[in-house]
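lol forgot to send this yesterday, sorry. struct tokens for the thing we talked abt
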């Protein structure tokens, strides 16, 4: 059995008539087009890698900047009574994040009293208290507080649904 020889690009006579313009174009411009395509792909890959590296650097810089800007909120809280409960929530969260669960529990307690009349925000210090109690290992108190919040939320939702 004789091997069937495949046509080469130099022997255009054995290439089908429909493909001859493509073969002729490739012979004239193929290597140049392929080179430009490789350069374009390489440039896109390089730009993507440079951009992703810069985004990673930006994220690290933001984290470093945020950790350097520890703000003492107590003077601000003492000045203005209108924003005091909200600032107390921010202060309690920063104490909790720092691992000072006792301090966070105390500040959440103060914010709890200040936000007791606000139906939309009164649950926020309660959740913070539950987290601080959990951090202190007082799981029974945290569980009872969570059950109390659940009952209050169900009651609030039912009251709003009835209206």
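and heres what i got for the seq, position by position
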């Amino acid at each position: 059995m004789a091997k069937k020889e495949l046509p080469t690009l130099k022997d255009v006579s054995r290439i089908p008539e429909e493909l001859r313009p493509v073969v002729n174009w490739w012979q004239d411009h193929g290597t140049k087009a392929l080179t430009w395509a490789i350069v374009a792909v390489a440039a896109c890959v390089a730009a993507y890698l440079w951009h992703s590296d810069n985004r990673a650097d930006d994220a690290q810089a933001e984290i470093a900047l945020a950790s350097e800007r520890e703000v003492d909120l107590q003077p601000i809280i003492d000045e203005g009574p209108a924003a005091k409960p909200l600032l107390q929530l921010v202060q309690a969260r920063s104490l909790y994040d720092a691992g000072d669960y006792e301090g966070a529990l105390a500040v959440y307690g103060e914010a709890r009293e200040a936000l007791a009349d606000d139906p939309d925000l009164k649950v926020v210090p309660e959740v913070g208290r539950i987290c601080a109690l959990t951090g202190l290992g007082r799981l029974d108190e945290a569980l009872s507080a969570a059950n109390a919040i659940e009952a209050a939320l169900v009651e609030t939702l039912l009251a709003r649904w009835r209206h």
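DSSP finds six helices and no strands in the chain. anyway ping me if u want another try
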